[in-house]
TrEMBL record:
<dbReference type="InterPro" id="IPR029071">
    <property type="entry name" value="Ubiquitin-like_domsf"/>
</dbReference>
<feature type="region of interest" description="Disordered">
    <location>
        <begin position="521"/>
        <end position="622"/>
    </location>
</feature>
<dbReference type="GO" id="GO:0007265">
    <property type="term" value="P:Ras protein signal transduction"/>
</dbReference>
<dbReference type="Pfam" id="PF00618">
    <property type="entry name" value="RasGEF_N"/>
</dbReference>
<dbReference type="Pfam" id="PF00788">
    <property type="entry name" value="RA"/>
</dbReference>
<dbReference type="InterPro" id="IPR023578">
    <property type="entry name" value="Ras_GEF_dom_sf"/>
</dbReference>
<protein>
    <submittedName>
        <fullName>RGL1 protein</fullName>
    </submittedName>
</protein>
<dbReference type="GO" id="GO:0005886">
    <property type="term" value="C:plasma membrane"/>
</dbReference>
<dbReference type="InterPro" id="IPR036964">
    <property type="entry name" value="RASGEF_cat_dom_sf"/>
</dbReference>
<feature type="domain" description="N-terminal Ras-GEF">
    <location>
        <begin position="56"/>
        <end position="187"/>
    </location>
</feature>
<dbReference type="GO" id="GO:0005085">
    <property type="term" value="F:guanyl-nucleotide exchange factor activity"/>
</dbReference>
<dbReference type="Pfam" id="PF00617">
    <property type="entry name" value="RasGEF"/>
</dbReference>
<feature type="domain" description="Ras-GEF">
    <location>
        <begin position="223"/>
        <end position="492"/>
    </location>
</feature>
<feature type="domain" description="Ras-associating">
    <location>
        <begin position="641"/>
        <end position="727"/>
    </location>
</feature>
<keyword id="KW-0344">Guanine-nucleotide releasing factor</keyword>
<dbReference type="InterPro" id="IPR001895">
    <property type="entry name" value="RASGEF_cat_dom"/>
</dbReference>
<feature type="compositionally biased region" description="Polar residues">
    <location>
        <begin position="538"/>
        <end position="551"/>
    </location>
</feature>
């Protein structure tokens, strides 16, 4: 089989990509060979005749909503077999379920008024049967893949409309009974918020329970593998509930608006759980003031062992949450405590941390996730022999039990990829047509999420109520509290527990593990700020900070701790921050990841990029209808006349930013208006603001009124901008 590009076909309201598919359908002996009685597959090529058939594959590239819905009925005829799945997974970015259902049923499903090509002859019974089969096929796929689209309590208008259509056009069919059962199921189900198992609000506690800081003895009573299994149990339950379209960049980036406080609850639940694990780690290490250094080190060691058990269970979500907590300011600065952690455990911690290294756009974690997505067991390789023996022993126990494992990903990677796609690709192309090529790119990410959700059905975990109650009643420390307790713990440490010689050796070893350097410079203490937000690369590693992308003080589930260092770069904050699922644009602080092949190290697209779908009309010049696909623009690099910049508001911390796509055609008024819209401010106030690029701590570049931002900016420093009100 060979494929050939057939160019484009343009119709009224739609543009199609055409591919020619050449398939061999027959191989036979030629005349001379047949006369000799030869068979085609037994003769050399010169004595055989091959017959080929060329078929045309049409895939819609852009179109109006009407054309996209109509294409649901014709996609199989055009050999675009994945179209229905792609449309159903992504249409919420540009249409509502009601709008699609009305078009499908009223315009194309009504035989008396249908303009569908196959029913041009309204008297044709055959055409009527074909159309009904196509409608039934689309509806069946919709109910199979996206039944949550019809959950609209208390009225369920779409489901009732569908039921009415089926009664009139397909009475007593399996589809009708299925819709009736779904309606009953929705009506009988309790309406409950999807908040996971980790909410710390008092309403979720059993009568008589209070939030508390647990004692070290109680925490130590839980075996490491039990804690990992229970964390995995909670993560699996939440991840399986995630509605894939909630992850779309155009939807997730809108959640901070006041009217969208209940938007994407399934994703918010995973964020809450991720942050709860992170805060639980910090609370157990710092919550008890009178712990000795060795006792605190033992708790750190226990959490590293638990993280390793999560790795065996292929739970990358809790694994990253634990590693992020250990890399947070308040834990990382406990230098004396870390000196008491055994060498083998530190090596294990280093290996686990390297999984989430930001090198080559998080290539290690991406490759590992794809490698183990559907494998039965984890693939454990350790450079340290003792750790490798323990890992293989634990893994063999799993295999002996015959227990297969699914894979729980770190959802933030996917959220960031989708935010990046939404920022870099426009929603509409020439003529106001919906850019469906963008939706195909988004579906590549959504399909990975669905695949991993399916793999989670392999888990067979039983809830341990004792641990779940312990976990639920943990009182989480605030950033201020954890920082204060960290300073107290370090100040109270007995600095004479080690001889000067051994202490110097230990400092050198721990600095090598954490910083990749033989020189360990103790971080400079800084006074705690009243509202700390994540610092820049040059900040003290001691400063307590909550780094956030569009930090929202009203949403406690979005508050998270920021790690401070990475093995690759001692001056750069580690990528493994316990971000709210690295929720793009969420109150998280994780330098995030983009697409696997895009930003190199140092050019990572971070999740603060809220993309207001369709709000950038000036990008029409980047029409996807032109030529071959171009490389997507990235942060900190100008490429093919476009790039992504970060714009924060004057008076807020630099980590509270919005990512904006600019081209070499954009001038100050366009970019300023776009930035105001992203920060939920009135675009009419363009004249009241000036755009400034931050060059260094004491230098900045102020742009003139009509300057071209792309050509005027300094491309040798970070693409960080400030929107400041004019004096």
């Amino acid at each position: 089989t060979t494929f050939q590009d057939g160019g484009e076909e343009v119709e009224d309201g739609a543009v199609y990509n055409v591919t020619l598919k050449k398939v061999q359908i027959q191989q036979a002996a030629n005349k001379g060979a047949r006369w000799l009685g030869g068979e085609g597959d037994q003769l050399p090529p010169e004595h055989t005749v091959r017959q080929y058939e060329t078929s045309k594959i049409r895939a819609i590239k852009a179109g109006t909503l009407e054309k996209l819905v109509e294409n649901l009925l014709t996609a199989f005829g055009d050999a675009d077999f994945s179209y229905i799945s792609i449309f159903l997974a992504t249409y919420r970015a540009f249409a509502s379920p009601r709008a699609v259902l009305e078009l499908l049923l009223d315009r194309f499903g009504n035989l008396e008024t249908s303009s569908h090509g196959e029913v041009a002859n309204l008297n044709s019974l055959e055409s009527e049967m074909v159309l009904r089969a196509e409608i039934a096929s689309v509806l069946r796929a919709w109910l199979d893949q996206c039944s949550e689209d019809f959950r609209e309590p208390p009225d369920y208008m779409c489901l009732l409309k569908l039921l009415d259509y089926l009664k009139n056009n397909m009475p007593n069919s399996d589809m009708e009974s299925r819709v009736q059962n779904l309606l009953k199921q929705f009506q009988n189900q309790e309406i409950e918020a999807v908040d996971g198992f980790c909410s710390t609000s008092s309403s979720d506690l059993v009568d008589g329970e209070e939030l508390e800081i647990s004692s070290p003895e109680e925490f130590s009573s839980f075996q490491d593998h039990v804690v990992a299994e229970q964390l995995t149990y909670m993560d699996v339950m939440l991840f399986r509930r995630v509605v894939p379209y909630h992850c779309l960049g155009s939807i997730w980036s809108q959640r901070d608006k006041k009217e969208n406080k209940n938007l994407a609850p399934t994703v918010r639940a995973t964020i809450t759980q991720f942050n709860a694990v992170t805060k639980c780690v910090i609370s157990t290490i710092l919550g008890t003031r009178d712990l000795k250094i060795q006792q605190r080190a033992k708790i750190i060691e226990k959490w590293i062992h638990i993280a390793h058990e999560c790795r065996i269970l292929k739970n990358f979500s809790s694994l990253r949450a634990i590693i992020s907590a250990l890399q947070s300011n308040s834990i990382y600065r406990l230098k004396t405590t870390w000196m008491c952690v055994s060498k083998d455990i530190l090596l294990m911690y280093e290996e686990l941390s390297e999984i989430f290294s930001d090198h080559d756009n998080y290539l290690t974690s991406r490759e590992l996730l794809m490698k183990e997505a559907t494998s039965k067991f984890a693939n454990l390789d350790s450079s340290e022999k003792e750790n490798q023996k323990k890992s293989q022993k634990r893994l063999q126990l799993q295999k002996n039990k015959g227990v297969m494992q699914g894979t729980v990903p770190y959802l933030g990677t996917f959220l960031t990829d989708l935010i990046m796609l939404d920022t870099a690709l426009q929603d509409y192309v020439e003529g106001g047509l919906i850019n469906f090529e963008k939706r195909r790119r988004e579906f590549e990410v959504i399909a990975q999420i669905k695949l991993l959700q399916s793999s989670c059905n392999s888990y067979c975990l039983i809830p341990d109520q004792k641990f779940l109650q312990w976990f639920r009643r943990q009182r989480h420390l605030t950033e201020e509290e954890s920082y204060k307790l960290s300073r107290e713990a370090e100040a109270a440490a007995d600095t004479n527990i080690l001889s000067p010689k051994s202490q110097k050796s230990m400092v050198k070893r721990i600095s090598t593990l954490f910083l990749g350097t033989d020189v360990f410079t103790p971080p400079k203490e800084q006074p705690l700020k009243s509202s700390p937000v994540g610092g820049s690369s040059g900040e003290s590693t001691d400063s307590a900070s909550v780094s956030s992308c569009e930090f929202n003080h009203s949403e406690t589930e979005d508050v998270c701790v920021t790690p401070v260092s990475s093995p690759e770069d001692p001056l750069k904050k580690i990528s493994g921050s316990p971000s709210c699922s690295c929720s793009p644009d969420s109150s998280v602080s994780t330098p995030s990841s983009g697409l696997p092949s895009l930003p190199p190290k140092g050019s990572i697209f971070e999740p603060g990029s809220g993309s207001d779908s369709g709000s950038v009309p000036s990008r029409d010049s980047c029409s996807v209808l032109s030529g071959a696909p171009r490389a997507l623009p990235v942060y900190n690099r100008q490429s093919e006349g476009s790039c992504i910049i970060r714009v924060s508001m004057d008076g807020l911390h630099a980590s509270v930013y919005k990512s904006i796509l600019i081209t070499n055609q954009d001038r100050i008024p366009d970019v300023t208006q776009r930035a105001l819209l992203k920060h939920n401010l009135g675009p009419d106030a363009v004249e009241d603001y000036e755009l400034v690029q931050v060059i260094s701590e004491d230098k900045e570049l102020v742009f003139p009124r009509d300057a071209n931002v792309f050509y005027g900016m300094n491309s040798h420093v970070n693409f960080d901008f400030i929107l400041r009100k004019k004096a």
